[in-house]
Amino acid sequence: MWTDLFESGSLALGYESTLGKRTGLLLCQGDYMKTSKSDPLTKSYYKAVHNAELFSQMTFYAAALLSIAILFIDKAASPNLHDLAQMVFVLLVIILFFSRILSSIYWSSRAHEKRFGDLLSHSFRVPLTDEISTGYHSHTDKDPFKAIIISVLENSLFSKSIAGAMLRWERAKAASYLGIWLVCALYRQSELTAIAVAAQIVFSGDVIERYMRLEWLKSQFDHVYDAAFSTIQSTTNFTTAEFRGRSVQLLLTYETSKSKAGISLSSRLFNKLNPSLSQSWDHLTKTLHL
Length: 290
Known about the structure:
Structural class: mainly alpha
Largest sheet: none
Distance between the termini: 15 Å
Radius of gyration: 22 Å
Helix content: 55-70%
Number of domains: 1
Number of helices: 7
Number of strands: 0
Shape: elongated
């Protein structure tokens, strides 16, 4: 199965699991993996995604710090330094723009496509790609559509829990940044330039927008989990066209939600929650007789 493996502390797309026990790193956007297994996609694709995201984050904070520093540079006393800082800031903004675009439409989409093909290859037992992981899918059901919905159920269980834990920090961060901006905006003696800089930082993609995307993604994970659970629980014949169509629908909802949100889940939180979530999954498999 899959969740997102980033050794740096962020998870975005994948996860390996073994029924009863999960160990190791997260892949990218949806599954968990064990370090002793073989997963060529991580090194070939997800490492690039991680590096691109890390580069974008560093560029954003560098631009934010520089925009604040510019406020303290006296243009009259140091015109050359002021102009240089402005040019570097513009350059950082341009670099940030293109790095985010490339990360979204190239590196992330390429890795996501490969991981999606890997999941379908294991579910249907057909090599749909030349790079396939081994030992990372816990389900043993030979019915491909039942295998798909079991994967979706497990992935959404882990993903919604990790996203929920991340939201505690993101909510606090967004509220703090927004509060600071409101104070600057309402304080009459604040300079317009300072208000503009604060607005740029707060309403950028790394603060308020990121929080809103994560909030939406968490709600999507909740929806997919509830729908997958009820579908499996209420189904007695797993070979009907209705069940198969529902399985594919939930898979697409889960995957497209991750793609739209573009949020990397935390591998630190995965490692922290992994034991309790593994127990929850074991209990769930017994309840649903999987």
